[in-house]
Amino acid sequence: MNKHIPQNASETTASESAAGGLLHIDLDALASNWRCLRDAAGGAEASAVVKANAYGTGIEKAVPALARAGCRTFFVAHVSEAVRTRAVAPDATIYVLNGLLPGSCAAYATSNLRPVLGSLEEIMEWAAFSRAEGRRFPAAIHVDTGMNRLGLTVREGLALPIRSELKDFEPSLLMSHFASAEEQDNPVNGQQIKAFTAVRNMLPDVPASLANSSGIFLREKPHFDLVRPGYALYGGNPTPDEENPMRPVVGLEGRIVQLRWIEAGETVGYSGRWTARDKRRIATVSVGYADGYSRSASARGQSGEATLSGMAIVASRLCPFAGTISMDLLAVDVTDVPEGDIARGVPVTLIGGALTIDEVGRRAGTIGYEILTSLGARYRRTYREAQD
């Protein structure tokens, strides 16, 4: 069953009409994206990365939608996220990517969670806990093949079969992580595949996982037994040099709270970093960096200059930002919008249509991942439920 997203003023509830920002999340598109990635992975299991509150979409909504689509394995960054995931996916396999903090073993066991062990110290602690409890608790083992962030060295990975600790717990997954999978021709990808394959060959009975969203689409097809898509699930493009195969999941609107005309030479925003070259009409929108909309998308210089900054879609027209984004507000130059098409209270699109997640990130001088995971709690959220 679909939960309808209000489309016009007559359908808008009182709480929505009072909201400065409206965040629309399409769970049907989320489920569709998971199925697309599952199919692209061939015979490998498709999991879902739901860290950072399911990339800003909400664990409690996203995880059940993915589970209904068929997802059985989830990855998060922290135990607190894993506990929330367990509450809405009681039968799922849940891995915690950020490793095993000292003294935290019991927290994993209590909620049936699996740590991703990224050092010999973590392996020894998990093995000791399993011995003390008299049970071979499952855990993933992470081998670093090129990120230099988390994980055993390749040399340590190749020596895993002689580690006695592996008899004390269940190595349920062997994994690594691509550093540059979005760059199809980057030679580092091949180096990482080779290194990971060498370690995997030492533990052939342990399921293996290397591919993230972009890794699924590499021509080498390094799918192994399980793939771990994250960003692409939420509409981000896993193939930046090609058309995006994913459906958009997130849309963001901000409401106009005031319209004003300013004269040539007047400035907009803190520190007066944007100046009107001629008479301009400015719309002030009730969204700011406290809502997670990046301040780095602020506009500087003069109106009409071709500078990279944020934009909004107003009455089907792309309109540039004006001035510095403040905590609760941002300004848009709407001079080119016919006066009859705009008014106080009208929503303008900040994410959606031509303003994809990737494009919004580019215009803010960052990446779509940061835009998604920064989406704030003050928005009025509406969900389109996934179809059965």
Automatic annotation (TrEMBL):
**Reaction(s) catalysed by this chain's protein:** L-alanine = D-alanine
- Quote the record's binding site residues for substrate: R149, M327
Any one Gene Ontology MF annotation carried by this entry is:
alanine racemase activity
Q: In which pathway does it act?
A: Amino-acid biosynthesis; D-alanine biosynthesis; D-alanine from L-alanine: step 1/1
- Key word Oxidoreductase present in the record? no
Domain Alanine racemase C-terminal as annotated: residue spans: 249-384
InterPro entries linked to this entry: Ala_racemase (IPR000821), Ala_racemase/Decarboxylase_C (IPR009006), Ala_racemase_C (IPR011079), Ala_racemase_N (IPR001608), PLP-binding_barrel (IPR029066)
Looking up Gene3D superfamilies in the UniProt record yields: Alanine racemase, Lyase, Ornithine Decarboxylase, Chain A, domain 1
Its cofactor is: pyridoxal 5'-phosphate
rRNA-binding listed as a keyword:
no
Q: Which residues carry this modification: N6-(pyridoxal phosphate)lysine?
A: K51
| SMART domains per record | Ala_racemase_C
Show the SUPFAM superfamilies listed in the entry: Alanine racemase C-terminal domain-like (SSF50621), PLP-binding barrel (SSF51419)
**What's the domain of life for this entry?**
Bacteria
Instruction: Name the active site residues.
Output: K51 (proton acceptor), Y270 (proton acceptor)
Quote the EC number: 5.1.1.1
Q: Do you know which Pfam families this protein is assigned to? A: Ala_racemase_C, Ala_racemase_N
Please provide the record's keywords in A-Z order.
Answer: Isomerase, Pyridoxal phosphate
Protein family membership: Belongs to the alanine racemase family.
Q: What does this protein do?
A: Catalyzes the interconversion of L-alanine and D-alanine. May also act on other amino acids.
What protein name applies here? Answer: Alanine racemase
